[in-house]
Amino acid sequence: MSKKQTDTIPDDITETISKAYPDYWPLTEQQMYYYLLRKGKLGTEEADLIEYWGLIDNWRLEQVDQRIFINHSPTLESPFLHCQSTKDRKMEYRRHVIENVTAVPDFEIWKDQDIYVELWVDDDALSEFLRLHMNKGVRIPIYNAGHILFPGPLAEAKARLDYMKNIEDKCVVVLYLGDLDPHAYEGYMYRRAAFSGRVDLYDRIGVNREHISRLPPKPPVLDHDNRPKQDRLFQKEIGDNGSYSAHALEPPKLLKLVSRTVNKYYDMKKYPHERVARWRKAQESIRNSLEAAFDDLLELTV
C-alpha cells in the first residue's frame, strides 16, 4: 500500500463503518471495502486490497466478534464456521437458527397474490446480506443465481416455477441483482434462456446503467473481465464506463431498491394480516423457548 493510503486507513475500520451504517450490520466484506474506497480511506491498487484482506484475516485470527461481516461463501449450515472460538461459534449458530425459525415464511406472505416473485442474486455474500436485512415489510424468496444452474438447484427451481405457473396459476416474476460487467451480463442472459417458458417477466433491478453515475467502478484488481471493448452487446448496455459491483451500492440504497421493486409487484390489499399475526404470536413462543435452550447450551462452553 502506498504511504499516502497507509496514513488514511482508520485504526478501527468496523467502528468507522458502523457509525455510517448502524442499522445494517453485518455487511459483506466487499461492501466494507467500497465504503472505504468512497471515503478515500483505501485505494484501488493490488497492495491496497492485500492490506484490506489482511485486516479481515487478522480479525478472524484475533477472534473479533464475527457478526461484524458476512463470510465470503455462507450456506444455510455454515455461515458461522469461520468463527474461531467455540463460544463465538455457538453464539453465531444461536443467532442464525433463531432468525431463520422465527421469520414469517415468504410463502405465507405471497399466498394470496396473483403474482409470484422471487429474487436471484448473483453473489453468495450479498444474498446472505439481503436475507438478514429483508425482515421488514414484504419478505421475498431469495436464491443465489450463481448456483441456480447446478443440477440440484436447477431441478428445484424448474419444479418450483412450474408449480407456481401451472398449478397455482400465478404470473411468475424473477428479480435479478448482479454486477454490471460482461461476465455477469452473459450469465444473466444465459439464465433467462434456461428458464424460457417458465418465467413471465425478468426484472433486472441492478446494477444498471442508471445506477453507475454515483458508484465507484470495480478496481482493476477486482475486475477479471477485460472484454467490455470487444463485447458489443455489453457496450450497447453501458458504453465504455467500466464494470461495477453490486456490493458498491450503499446498503440503505440497496435495500430500498429491492423493497421498492418488490412493493411494485405486491398488492397490499391482499396482505394476510390475520395469518401473519398468528405466525408472530406462535413465533414469540418459539423464540422464547429457543433462547432459553441456547442459554443452557452456552453454559457448556469451556
Can you characterise this structure?
This protein folds into 2 domains: 3-100, no CATH class; 106-271. The protein is 49% helix and 9% strand. It has 12 helices and 6 strands. Helix 5 (86-101) packs antiparallel against helix 12.
Summarize this structure briefly.
By secondary structure, the chain is α/β, with parallel strands linked by helices.
- From the alpha-carbon coordinates, what is the Rg to the nearest angstrom? 21 Å
Output mean pLDDT. Answer: 80
What characteristic shape results from the CA principal axes?
Answer: globular
- Put simply, the count of helices is 12
Termini separation comes to: 40 Å
Which residues sit in consecutive blocks of at least 5 with pLDDT less than 50? 1-8, 72-84
Can you summarize the main beta sheet?
A: 4 strands, parallel
Order of helices and strands: HHEHHEHHEHEHEHEHHH
Domains, number = 2
Strand order of the largest sheet: 4-3-5-6
Beta-strand residue fraction: 5-15%
Q: Please identify the structural class as seen in this structure.
A: alpha/beta
Helix content: 40-55%
How many β strands by DSSP? 6
